[in-house]
Amino acid sequence: MPLFKTSNQKAQKLLRKDFANEKELQHFVETNLEELFGIRFLATEYSTNHGGRIDSLGLDENNSPVIIEYKWGENSAIINQGLFYLDWLVEHIAEFQLLVQKKLGQDVEVDTGSPRLILIAASYSKFDE
Prior knowledge:
Elements lengths: L3 E4 L2 E4 L8 H10 L1 H5 L2 E8 L5 E7 L5 E7 L6 H14 L1 H12 L11 E6 L8
Parallel strand pairs: 5-6
Antiparallel strand pairs: 1-2, 3-4, 4-5
């Protein structure tokens, strides 16, 4: 479905431009997190203590933690991976709160009760539906 930009009641069809790879998509989303999702950016490729890396970390408009994972191709493990990182976040919430204070200031109070998980992929397997 095409997208349009309007100016002075006139619609102009926008040209489609695909991302070259997962990193380009991730960079675009991270650069525009506030505009796209109302999320303040905290970190990219955040290293966990179990050898994993959370693609993007943020804080939403309600000060709830947000984990964002990206997958370029179909990947049946994206939901499991996201849930694994969500579990890690719950177990390491003090570490997350320190990151928030470092990036956004001491006066930001994190709402730890409702962390969010956003999974961005080109497609999902039938097991993810």
